[in-house]
Amino acid sequence: CNEATDKLEEVNKVIADLRKQLAEAEEKAAKLNAEISKHKESIVTVRSKFSRQLGRLEKKEQSVKEHRADWEAEKQSLNKAKEAHEAAMAAHSEEMLSRDKLIEDITAEVKIARDFEEIISDKLNDS
Hints:
Layout: H1 2-126
């Protein structure tokens, strides 16, 4: 019987310690809940105070997104125009090179024709 009584006392002490720990934890939880409530109230106060500014900020953010999309579209359009211009410039350069080559060929042929004319003129004058 003494052994059971000793064990019961020991269990009761453990229960008392656990109740004390529970009370301490509940007190701590109550303090934390109070602190959380204060923080939530502060957040509501700040949001209320700055709601108009937040609204303007959100509108500006949306406007920036829209302008960014417009800018991207314009950038793509300009890049396409740039590529088309570069292609036209390359084609024009090729045409100029062909023209220069043609002028060189014609100049050479004209020189040959003059030389030939001079030779024939000399032969005709000699005879």
